[in-house]
Specification:
Layout: H1 3-6, E1 13-16, E2 25-27, E3 37-40, H2 53-58, E4 63-66, E5 77-80, H3 84-95, E6 104-109, H4 114-127, E7 132-135, E8 139-142, E9 145-148, H5 156-168, E10 173-177, H6 180-184, E11 193-198, H7 214-222, E12 228-234, H8 240-243, E13 250-255, E14 262-272, E15 275-284, E16 288-292, H9 297-310, H10 317-326, E17 334-335, E18 343-347, H11 352-363, E19 370-374, H12 382-395, E20 398-401, H13 411-422, E21 428-431, H14 435-444, E22 451-455, E23 462-465, E24 468-471, H15 474-490
Parallel strand pairs: 2-3, 3-4, 4-5, 6-10, 6-11, 7-10, 11-12, 12-13, 13-14, 18-22, 19-20, 19-22, 20-21
Antiparallel strand pairs: 1-5, 7-8, 8-9, 14-15, 15-16, 17-18, 23-24
Helix pairs in contact: 3-5, 4-9, 4-10, 11-12, 12-13
C-alpha cells in the first residue's frame, strides 16, 4: 500500500525521504524488520522503539514513524507524529482497509462485568440471527476460530487484523471489551464505535504500571464516550457524571434506580441444589420478565446491560429471554455439575475486592456452608495474600487454601502468607498445596446444601511454575477426580 494512503487520516510531518513509496508491511517489532517495512517507534514500559531506528533502517525498513528525529540514512523516510501509538492505530486501520466501518462495533468498558456482558450480548445477537465477532479478556472469536487472549484489549494492529478477518467472515457486529489501558494507550483510537457501554467503576488498576490515580483511571474510561455514537451507561454508578465529562455521544441509562431508561425491578433469588440464579422484571423502554442462570445482583446488571445493547438491534423479547437463560461464561461463576446435593462453581476472582463481592453474593442464597478454595499468584504483592485470606476467613464457612500460579515462589510460602490473613479471623481452614488434591478434598467433603467456589483460576487453562506454563484446567481436574472415584467404586 502507498505511504500517503496510510497517512491520510493522520497529522504528521515528513522529516526526510519520499512520500510516494510502497509499504510492504507494518510492524512494531524491530526483529521483524525487512525490505519495505514501516516501523513504529513505540515508547514502551521496558524499551523505547526509537533506539532501534538505525537497526531497522539497515534491515531495509522504508518508513519510520517517530515522535522525535532519529539518525538514519537519508533514503529512509521518517514521519514525525505527536504520538506513535495513536499513529499506529490509525495507520493499522488504513492498512486493513478500515474494516470497522463495515460492521457495527460495540465497546464495553468498566471495572467489572465486561467479560460476562460481552458473552451475553454475543449469545442474544446470535440467537437473533446476527453473525458476531468477539474480542475480550478470555479470547477473540472470529467465526469458528478461537484465539486465546494476552490482553483484555489487544494492540491496535492486532485489533484491526481481527476486524479485517471478522468482516471477511461476514460478521455484522463486533462486541469487544475496552480496558482503561487500551484507551490510555490508544489501542482503540480511530474505531467508530456504534455503542459505548459503561458497566461500573471502582478503585482498581492504580499503580506505577497502570494508572497514576483513580481520577486518571476515570478519565481514561471516559474517552470511550467521545468516540461512540450512543453511550449506554449504568445510571446507578456514583461516578457517572465524571465518566461523562466531555462526552459527545447520545446517552441512555440502565440500572435499579428510578429515572433510568431501562430498569430492573422485583429482584428474586432462585436457588436449589446444583442451581443458583436470579429473576427480575425489566421496565421502561422494554417490559418483560428475565431469569438468568448466574447468581447475584451483578448478574442483573450484566444482563440488563446486554438487554440495553440488544434493544438497538431490534431483537425480539422471547429471543432475549431464551439467550440470557442459556448464557454461560467460562470461569465467571461457572457451574460445574458434580452432585445433586451441592453446588460447585468456578470463578476468576483473584483479588480481595472480587473475592468479597463473590462470597457476599453467594451468601445471599443461604447455603448450608459456603466453601471457598483459592490460592494466590507468586511474585505479586504479599498484601493481596493477606487480604484474600482475611476476606475468605470472614465470609466463607470453610476455606481450602491451595496453590494458584506460584511462578518463582514456593507454594508453601505463598500459602503461609494467606494464612496470616486467615488468622485475623475465626474462619476454619485447611491447607492443601496440590490444587487437584485440594479440589478432590472439596468434592469428597461436600455436604448437602453446600456451595463450593473454586476461585482465582477461572478461564485459565494452565499453572505457571518457574517460568513455564503447565496445562491445568479445573474442569479437566474435576472430570479426572470424578472418573477416578468411579474407578475406585468399581473395584
Amino acid at each position: 500500500m502507498r505511504l500517503n494512503q496510510l497517512l491520510q487520516r493522520l497529522e504528521y510531518t515528513c522529516l526526510q525521504g519520499r512520500m510516494d513509496i510502497e509499504v510492504a508491511e507494518i510492524i512494531n517489532d524491530s526483529r521483524k524488520a525487512k525490505e519495505g517495512s514501516l516501523f513504529f517507534c513505540i515508547r514502551g514500559a521496558v524499551t523505547d522503539g526509537h533506539k532501534y531506528a538505525k537497526e531497522v533502517a539497515e534491515k531495509g525498513a522504508a518508513v519510520l514513524i517517530v515522535e522525535e528525529p532519529v539518525d538514519v540514512p537519508e533514503h529512509t523516510t521518517v514521519i514525525q507524529v505527536a504520538d506513535t501509538r495513536y499513529a499506529m492505530a490509525l495507520i493499522s486501520a488504513a492498512w486493513y482497509g478500515y474494516p470497522a466501518e463495515e460492521m457495527k462495533i460495540i465497546g464495553v468498558t468498566g471495572t467489572k462485568g465486561k467479560t460476562t456482558t460481552t458473552y451475553m450480548v454475543k449469545s442474544i445477537l446470535e440467537a437473533a440471527g446476527y453473525k458476531v465477532g468477539l474480542i475480550g479478556t478470555i479470547e477473540a472469536i472470529i467465526g469458528e476460530t478461537v484465539i486465546p487472549a494476552n490482553n483484555t484489549t489487544p494492540e491496535s494492529m492486532t485489533i484491526q487484523e481481527y476486524f479485517r478477518r471478522m468482516a471477511d467472515e461476514g460478521c455484522q457486529i463486533v462486541v469487544m471489551e475496552v480496558s482503561s489501558q487500551g484507551l490510555m494507550l490508544h489501542r482503540t483510537a480511530g474505531i467508530p464505535f456504534e455503542l459505548g457501554i459503561f458497566t461500573n467503576i471502582e478503585p482498581d488498576h492504580i499503580g506505577p504500571a497502570e494508572h497514576a490515580s483513580f481520577e486518571d483511571y476515570i478519565a481514561c474510561k471516559g474517552r470511550l464516550f467521545r468516540q461512540c455514537r450512543v453511550g449506554i451507561m449504568n445510571g446507578d454508578d456514583p461516578h457517572l457524571e465524571e465518566i461523562l465529562k466531555g462526552h459527545t455521544c447520545k446517552v441512555e441509562t440502565f440500572g435499579l434506580s428510578e429515572g433510568v431508561d431501562l430498569r430492573a425491578e422485583n429482584l428474586e433469588l432462585v436457588g436449589r441444589p446444583g442451581y443458583l440464579g436470579i429473576r427480575y422484571t425489566v421496565t421502561g423502554k422494554l417490559n418483560f420478565d428475565v431469569e438468568v442462570d448466574i447468581p447475584g445482583k451483578f448478574s442483573v446488571y450484566n444482563s440488563l446491560t446486554a438487554i440495553a445493547i440488544c434493544r438497538h438491534f431490534n431483537v425480539e423479547t422471547e429471543m432475549i429471554q431464551k439467550a440470557l437463560k442459556a448464557a454461560n461464561v467460562k470461569g465467571r461463576v461457572e457451574k460445574v455439575k458434580v452432585s445433586d446435593d451441592f453446588t460447585l462453581m468456578i470463578d476468576y476472582a483473584h483479588n480481595a475486592m472480587a473475592l468479597e463481592s463473590l462470597l457476599t453474593t453467594l451468601k445471599e442464597y443461604h447455603p448450608k456452608r459456603l466453601v471457598c478454595l483459592f490460592g494466590c499468584g507468586g511474585n505479586r504483592s504479599k498484601l493481596r495474600r493477606y487480604e484474600m485470606g482475611e476476606v475468605s476467613g470472614r465470609f466463607a464457612d470453610f476455606t481450602i487454601i491451595t496453590s494458584d500460579n506460584p511462578r518463582y515462589e514456593k507454594p508453601d510460602d505463598i500459602i503461609a502468607d494467606i494464612v496470616v490473613g486467615m488468622k485475623k479471623t475465626d474462619g476454619k481452614y485447611v491447607t492443601i498445596p496440590n490444587r487437584k488434591e485440594a479440589i478432590a478434598y472439596a468434592i469428597h467433603h461436600g455436604q448437602p446444601g453446600d456451595v463450593i467456589i473454586l476461585a482465582g483460576k477461572g478461564h485459565e487453562t494452565y499453572q505457571e511454575i518457574e517460568g513455564k506454563k503447565y496445562p491445568m484446567d479445573e474442569r479437566v481436574l474435576i472430570r479426572e477426580i470424578l472418573e477416578e472415584d468411579q474407578e475406585k467404586a468399581g473395584r
